Amino acid sequence: MENSNNEIENLLVICAADEGKLKVLLKKREKEPYYGYWVLPGEFIDSNITEEESTKQIFNALVPFDYTYTFQGETFSDLNRYEGRRVIALTNIVITDKQLIDLKKEKENIEWFDVDELPKLGFDHGKIIEKISTELKYKIACNYHDILIYLFPSDFTLSELQTFYESMVGEEIDRRNFKKKITTLNLITDTGVKDTLSGGRPSTLYKFNIESMKGTRL
Amino acid sequence: MENSNNEIENLLVICAADEGKLKVLLKKREKEPYYGYWVLPGEFIDSNITEEESTKQIFNALVPFDYTYTFQGETFSDLNRYEGRRVIALTNIVITDKQLIDLKKEKENIEWFDVDELPKLGFDHGKIIEKISTELKYKIACNYHDILIYLFPSDFTLSELQTFYESMVGEEIDRRNFKKKITTLNLITDTGVKDTLSGGRPSTLYKFNIESMKGTRL
DNA sequence: ACAAAAGTGTTGCTGTTACACCCATGG
DNA sequence: CCATGGGTGTAACAGCAACACTTTTGT
Predict the structure, then answer these.
(1) How many C-beta neighbours within 10 Å does residue B31 have?
(2) A26 contacts: CB under 8 Å, gap ≥ 6
(3) Residue A134 per-residue DSSP state
(4) In chain B, what percentage of residues exceed pLDDT 70?
(5) How far is Cα of residue A55 from the mean position of the Cα atoms in its chain?
(6) What is the count of residue pairs from A and B with beta carbons less than 8 Å apart?
(7) Each residue's pLDDT tens digit, B64-107
């Protein structure tokens, strides 16, 4: 066979870290099928648009600025995954900063959800998010530190980072040992600023040392 | 947009371990474009065949038995990757045993190549193999031991395994330390059989302990 | 007897775990 | 002054790296 004919969609899994949890941005669907359900933002693509352009386009339809980091996820191709038809879903993971999106969130039909506490999802998007978040957790657990830079672009406290890290690897870590680990690896720098928003003693705000993190793969 | 129209192909990266190296099975192309070049075996797919069926079909067109392990690789979608058209390439990595395929190789137009010493390849298949073999190397380096079971299904010597492992992680390891590592993890069992084919003292043949390896991810 | 490859143990080092008390702030 | 959360050091242990000589076979 020298030709074929398929429908393709590009789905975005837009991720951010907040309150020590991995969040994903979902959109409330405005038409049938699955009217009113939550789904991953996406669009059908045709053979004249690149995956990257499509990703940017979907993202910009939600918020008016650019993301900093994206990479391809698994492709889903079950025969009946889209209303009985086989629409192949490419997925792209977009890492962004939750605060940025919150600032400009005038739209009522998009919302962040904790990946472990999802609402009712349309199509097979529940399965997709589950697979991709598992993959992300493995990557972070396997010390692909690069991803953390994008999840924590601005200053953060050690507790924030630790809580997030713990939820990714699924186990608790001693505070002192955690600090030792990342300071030994030279991953963070004290910004000199303190955060007084928490209940007790103000916590130091850190930022990542971008140089030390490039290619720090286990 | 609620419909789209795309050409899709499924490409197989069929892998085996031999002489301590990662090998990939290529096919000599029998028509234009790229007549006579080496390419990944594959086929165009349509919306009525599953990815798994297609993978099996492509594999069986080359050899008359089944593979034991397969998983999805990256998807390639550059606008002009297929003769100026955008044909989206799904990839599937198939892990098999080189000896099996050698036994039945009556075909002249398929051949194993070392992933680091490839011939002239058609289309963008060089780039595809490079990306996927890098990914595979990372997985093996990150202790996804499962893959090794399928690359070494039959008895093997420690040197064989070590040479292969070294070429995957890109560094040399002390023989004693390597043995210590995998015996501590309980990964292998002495089969009692010796291999007298090498030059010197006969080497012990081992097999993997399948039970100990399930989910041994870092 | 020699060449080729396999087999084996010990020591130091380094990174990891376990663990508890004091400090700075707000109410 | 009390509640809340943040900050810090040390000692035992485990896993990892470095290292060289002996054994078994074929020729």
Answers:
(1) 8
(2) A38, A39, A40, A41, A110, A111, A112, A113, A118, A119, A121
(3) H
(4) 94
(5) 14
(6) 89
(7) 889 989 999 999 999 999 999 999 999 999 999 988 887 666 67
Answer whether A169 touches B (CB < 8 Å): no
Two domains, one topology: A7-145 and A155-213 = no
Which segments of B143-202 are extended strands (E)?
A: 156-157, 188-195
In whole angstroms, give the CA distance from residue A169 to residue A173. Answer: 10
- Mutating which of A1, A3, A6, A31 best tests the B interface, going by the most B Cβ atoms within 10 A? A6
Chain B contact present for A71, CB below 8 A: no
Query: Where exactly are the structural domains of chain A?
Result: 7-145, 155-213
Distance separating the N- and C-terminal Cα atoms of chain A? 43
B141 neighbourhood in chain A, CB within 8 Å: 218
Q: What angle do CA B74, B77, B80 make, to 5 degrees?
A: 140
Binning pLDDT at 50, 70 and 90, where does residue B141 land?
Answer: confident
pTM over 0.90: yes
Domain B155-213 has CATH 3.30.9.10: no
Just give the CATH number of A7-145. Answer: 3.90.79.10
On the question of pLDDT at B155 being above 80, the answer is yes
**Contact call for residues B205 and B157 (beta carbons, < 8 A):** yes
Considering only residues B160 and B142, tell me which one the structure prediction assigns the higher pLDDT: B160
